Amino acid sequence: MVASPEANYMSPQEYLEWEEHQEIKYEYIDGEVFAMTGGTIPHNSIALNLASALKSHCRGGSYRVNMAGAKVGVSENVAFHYPDVVVSCDERDKQAIQFLQYPCLIVEVLSPSTEAYDRGKKFTRYRRIQTLQEYVLIDAEKIGLDCFRLNDRGLWELHPYEAGDEIHLTSVDFHFPISLVYEDVQFA
Questions:
Q1: Which among 7, 110, 122, 162 would be 20 to 30 A from 142, CA to CA?
Q2: Which tops the pLDDT comparison, 160 or 77?
Q3: What is d(CA 127, CA 124) in angstroms, rounded to the nearest whole number?
Q4: What pLDDT sits at residue 5?
């Protein structure tokens, strides 16, 4: 993520209208816009592998599965992010055109330059989404996945997974081996 050279503050509505006419995607945080940088081939493959498996798993159900081009509005539109994979089962998102607001699952594929942000400030913002049940962070440099899951007491619990593990995403009741996420992925 790179700050836009123009440090003009925008309202959420101004941002949504402005971004429609841009050649690249921009995230919006508290009135500022940030250009989205490109990812690596492994990053893209990991997101595609999981999104494809989720789409197949959820086919015919009430879930809506999207990847990188789908924007998520956070907390009364104070931020808009582009997660690598997002799933919503909320009826209010069924007709969404510009952005989703009620996801149950958000997935970010980590890169060295964004890992701290994805684990920190971005996760803090995502936790404001009342419908969010799971936040998944996938390592793009080695096999590893962290699933943060909201428990019945309203606390976020970490469920780490490594090579050979079976993962269960409870928000969509999806079981899969971690190897599915890393299919055809070559590490540097």
A1: 122
A2: 160
A3: 5
A4: 47
